[in-house]
Specification:
Keywords: S-adenosyl-L-methionine, Transferase. The protein is of the alpha/beta class and 374 residues long. The protein has 13 helices and 14 strands. The protein folds into two domains: 258 residues, 3-Layer(aba) Sandwich (Rossmann fold), CATH 3.40.50; 77 residues, Ribosomal Protein L9, domain 1 (3-Layer(aba) Sandwich), CATH 3.40.5.
Length: 374
């Protein structure tokens, strides 16, 4: 049940994104820092096909585009002007479909304006993209049915909703078994004090609604998801003295996580897997998350949870999975990850990544716009 305070926050955010912001450069803080990962060529080409106005009105930074997308049905939470949706519509192909939902009517109008333009550019006979004006915590009200999507993405939108658990519950409902939520967002190093949580500009700048990072695992488990898998993380720096004083000792990171909804199956054992290199743009290696990179034809020993994900998700066709507890004959490279080496803390990962921030290749996996992105 939404509280009066929730309704007030929603109104403030709608005003901020619908009236205050006109382009990415209008943000007042370096609120989200993109994670540095190379963008595959086919994704760069898809982005180049997006209409200029759609790109200019897009307030995200970097991309939230996972792998293995052909023929998938994808839902974009907080789709804005539709840039990611239009890029994804090319990647899923005519047999796939992309739906964008956003609470800012002006943004949805911009997105809808260019459907025919993009379908003609892609050579599609019928539109494979739809835009809905609605709320990401109320997907049922927007007409989105149970178990209807393979993937849900979100780029710095969940933090703008006060009730994060309701968003995750709705995402879990609309995902098919084996589906995933692949999303970037802002996380805080501690429970936010009232002064930050009630600051209108900090809400609009993606900081006032940031979740304490440890709470994500708690919410995911409560809803039914597998434990969150950390993909990328970078520290956020605020270059505004007044806002720095409000924030105080609290630190923030921009982090990408993936959450899987798996069918209820029996227990699995850790085993060995081999990636076959069949995913477009990732033929030589697949960086699955911060802990697992699968190189083509290399034997990798994975834990029980990773086995369950690879077996029961869209990635199953791209892996040879050995029998429970048994090993492949070793004739080449072999990798095994110790439990103590697993990284789950985005602040720890951001610390490791900080020294590499100056690398100049294009980025994947960030969220809200910064002065670096326009």
């Amino acid at each position: 049940m939404a509280t009066p305070r929730d309704a007030e926050i929603r109104k403030d955010v709608q005003t901020y994104y619908g009236q205050v912001l006109k382009k990415s450069a209008d943000f007042q803080t370096n609120a989200c820092v993109t994670a540095a990962r190379p963008v595959p060529q086919h994704i760069r080409e898809a982005l180049q096909n997006v209409h200029e106005e759609v790109s200019l009105r897009y307030y995200g930074c970097g991309l939230v585009i996972p792998e293995c997308l052909e023929n998938c049905w994808i839902l974009d939470l907080g789709s804005g002007s539709g840039r990611d949706c239009y890029a994804l519509s090319q990647l899923v192909g005519e047999k796939g479909h992309v739906t964008g939902i956003d609470m800012t009517e002006g943004q949805v109008e911009v997105a809808n304006k260019y459907i025919e333009y993009h379908m003609e550019k892609y050579g599609f006979q019928a539109p494979n993209v739809t835009f809905i004006h609605g709320y990401i915590e109320k997907l049922e009200e927007a007409g989105i049915k149970n178990e209807s999507y393979d993937i849900v993405i979100s780029n710095c939108a969940i933090n703008l909703v006060p009730d994060k658990q309701q968003v995750l519950q709705e995402v879990y409902r609309v995902l098919k078994h084996g589906g995933e939520l692949y999303f970037s967002d802002v996380y805080a190093s501690l429970e936010l004090p009232e002064e930050i949580r009630t600051h209108k500009v900090l809400w609009g700048e993606c900081l006032g609604g940031a979740l304490y990072w440890k709470d994500l695992s708690i919410l995911a488990k409560k809803v039914g998801f597998c434990p969150p898998r950390l993909v990328t993380a970078n520290f956020i720096t605020v270059q505004n003295k007044e806002l720095e004083n409000v924030i105080g000792d609290c630190r923030f990171v921009s982090a990408t996580f993936r959450l899987f909804k798996l069918p209820k199956t029996g227990p699995t054992q850790k085993c060995q897997v081999i990636y076959n290199g069949g995913i477009r743009g990732h033929e030589k290696e697949l960086i699955f998350d911060a802990n697992f990179t699968f190189k083509k034809d290399e034997v990798v020993e994975v834990d029980e949870e990773t086995v369950a994900i690879l077996k029961n998700s869209r990635f199953a066709q791209d892996f040879l999975i050995g029998p429970d507890g048994e090993k492949f004959p070793t004739c080449g490279a072999y990798t095994a990850l110790e439990v103590k080496d697993v990284v789950t803390d985005p602040f720890e990962l951001a610390g490791r990544s900080d020294s590499a921030e100056s690398r100049s290749f294009p980025a994947v996996g960030g969220c809200c716009s910064t002065k670096k992105c326009s």
